[in-house]
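[job 4417] fold queue: 2 targets
>>> target A
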Amino acid sequence: MIISAEVDCLIYDAQSLKNKRAVLKRIKTRLHNEFNIAVSELEFQNLWQRTRLGLVTIASDKTIAEQTMQQALTFIDSFPEIERTETQIEWL
């Protein structure tokens, strides 16, 4: 089973694109390392305080894939410098 999510986020403390990219790099690396999820910035690359991330995971069982995605979304919420505003989840 393949599950994907598009996650809109705000990064309030980012004062430049460099700040934003540092925050995103840390989050993306940890998501990949801890949950083996593919992560990419999909939109708003040139805005300091806004981003849309795409997350994708694949598993042999629907329950495992959904559980992994929910853990990853909870993990994103644990970062104080980023706020998840809207999430769209899709099964492929």
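>>> target B
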Amino acid sequence: MNLNPSRGDLIRSQNYVSGRWLDAHDGATFEVCNPADLSRITAVPDSGARDAEAAIEAAQAAFAGWRATPAKARGQLLKRWHALILANQEDLGRLVSLEQGKPLAEGQGEVLYAASYVEWFAEEASRIEGDLIAPAVPGRRMMTVREPVGVVAVITPWNFPAAMIARKIAPALAAGCTLVAKPAEDTPLTSLALIRLAEEAGVPAGVINIVCASREQTPALVDVWLADARVRKISFTGSTPVGKHLARASADTLKKLSLELGGNAPFIVFDDADLDAAVDGLMVSKFRNGGQTCVCPNRIYVQDKVFDSFADKLVARVAALQVGPATDPKAQIGPMINARAVEKILHHIDDAVARGGRVLTGGQRVHPELGPNYVAPTVLADAGQDALLCHEETFGPVAPLFRFRSEEDVIRQANDTPFGLAGYFYSENVSRIWRVADALETGIVGINEGAVASEAAPFGGVKESGYGREGSKYGLDDYMHIKYLCQGNLR
């Protein structure tokens, strides 16, 4: 199976600034490789401070015109972009799988997920509304209007290279903002292809600007955006340590921040749950994208009475998963993104075993003849609560099972983390459902459901998982200011 797009112009190897495709100012590049076999795909600009500055200047110059564009016209442009994404779904899905490694069916599905955000915010653009306020004194009119914040800096992760940039760019454009963007160094090509389609849809020059940078060069590039007062908002998805750095560095210019950071999701199976449904839900939530998602379960708590039965059902399903490259139509789990990811996963497994855990299936690399980045889907049992995988995101296909006795005990364990992005639980007891949903300290709760993401629902966390919400009717809020207007002397 060939993963190269049939439209050759979708593989871009330049930045896009002020409506032009450009090399880095100093001509530097870095290579983008396929994680399945480490083969080179292409090279993209390794941008620096001067490229970051040029992107800001372009976005600032375009802001006044884009802000003045009627909301309906902005929505219509987004609809044209949405139509082009759908028309090129197959090519974009191949590109996702080529640079990220996920199975082709998941790559195609991610493109549809990305398109759903563009469509949603195309429609939301015309629903930007203010309020009339009852005047406090006679002869006065009081109202609010909502205005775009200005230039937005978007920094996206590698695990969903189409969905994450669409989820950030679409509301920014709908709100009337212009933007500068930096895709993850591992997966810049999908983002560049989406910007190529936005250009084709007619986005004016300077409204969207995207620059690439290697891991080593990224701090120098992003620091320019952090220091510049013309950048009024940062939208970032990634690790909590980086999010904290962005928050600290944004303080001098008091930028707005949307931070979707680390997760440590609990998945709870009570003894009154439908076990088959719980296994189905865990397979969807844990092993999608090879476990490389911020909302995938990291700690699976199963009540004593049903622990062995649940474990047996889960092991049978996990052991049957097919591991391989996206070019294999039977593959259900692709390669991990890079060697660092593999090393962390294997370290977590070894640490769990050292702390009393048992490997029920998996637990090692697989298919060495294909490449070094493949890890067998793994189920562990009975590791200690001090295991690293209880406190750090594993970000891989590892499902650790822990026993619990009471509802109170499992709620305490589930909330015993600085993170609070997603949580899941399965129960058929209606009273318990509402007690547990209220008690979980997370921004997202899946109740008898493992697939919770939707363009119509707010996505985001609490505690050290960040703040701000993406998607849904709330998704425009972080890209807008509320302005209060007061007119007096009307009598």
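[job 4417] complete. Note on B: The two ends are 76 Å apart (CA to CA).
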